[in-house]
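Interim report to the steering committee. The following record documents the input for Aspartyl/glutamyl-tRNA(Asn/Gln) amidotransferase subunit C (95 residues).
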Amino acid sequence: MSIAPETAARVAKLARIKVEPEALPALAAEFNTILGFIEQLNEVDVDGIEPMTSVTPMRLKRRDDVVTDGDRQAQILKNAPDAREGFFAVPKVVE
């Protein structure tokens, strides 16, 4: 598969990337290089190979899922412009 400069311009527009018209042929060539690498990967025989999530098999470290208040109320409320009784105080907006 080959990418033309017009297709590269469309991809750039969809990605919301501004590409000058004189840079489109170089961008198309980069896309073609990437597609060439993908075609090489498609030639590899992977039948019978288990998918990997990491090159070294290990379990993730886990912690107990315990609900807490974070024990940081005073530090958080210290930044509030107005705090009362342990809560943020805001102006009344509904009658």
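The chain has a mean pLDDT of 90. The committee is asked to note this result when reviewing the revised timeline.
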